[in-house]
Design goal:
By secondary structure, the protein is mainly α. The protein has 6 helices and no strands. The termini are far apart.
Length: 176
């Protein structure tokens, strides 16, 4: 009889915790978050200048498109993973600017490298928008810009690399 009570309490405790997780996620989604364009247009966005990539070197078995997708796909996956560590899973609530600014600057450098090799216009737009969101966040110490950058990279990682992650799609990338 006692084990039934323990099992009953355990099951209902798990259901209650699951309900809290759902409520927290619903609350964050229902807060009417701004679109990318609204966020970036609040102040003048930083313009990104890229240097063209000169072809050369050894030939490979991959076509140029496959090489580009592979190279930019690796960058997308790495940036997404870094942003997960910074702001994913509600980590944005305790975000520390002093400690994380160099990491964000490194992400911008990685995305600028991606822009040098990427040939797909939509992926380039998404990379530029991510850079703009991070730079705007850095300029104003606004963690929402970092969260926006994470959402873009989250979706790109799914569309380019097939990384299903948590199953969420934000629907905010140009590339799909």
């Amino acid at each position: 009889m006692k084990s039934k009570k323990v099992a009953f309490i355990l099951v209902y405790s798990l259901i209650a915790m699951f309900g809290v997780v759902i409520a927290v996620n619903w609350y964050s989604v229902s807060q009417g978050e701004e679109t990318i364009e609204e966020y970036l247009e609040q102040e003048e966005a930083v313009e990104v200048i890229t240097v063209s990539h000169e072809e050369g070197g050894e030939e490979s078995d991959l076509s140029n498109d496959e090489e580009t997708e592979s190279g930019s796909g690796e960058i997308i996956a790495a940036v997404h993973q870094e942003l997960n560590q910074l702001v994913g899973w509600n980590r944005y609530r305790g975000f520390s600017w002093g400690r994380n600014e160099p990491r964000l600057e490194g992400i911008v450098e990685d995305l600028e490298t991606m822009l040098e090799i990427e040939t797909n216009d939509d992926r380039r737009k998404d990379a530029k928008r991510t850079i703009q969101a991070i730079q705007k966040a850095l300029d104003g110490s606004d963690v929402e810009g970092v969260r926006l950058a994470h959402k873009i990279m989250h979706d790109l990682d799914f569309y380019v690399n097939g990384n299903v992650g948590d199953g969420k799609r934000y629907g905010i990338t140009e590339y799909q």
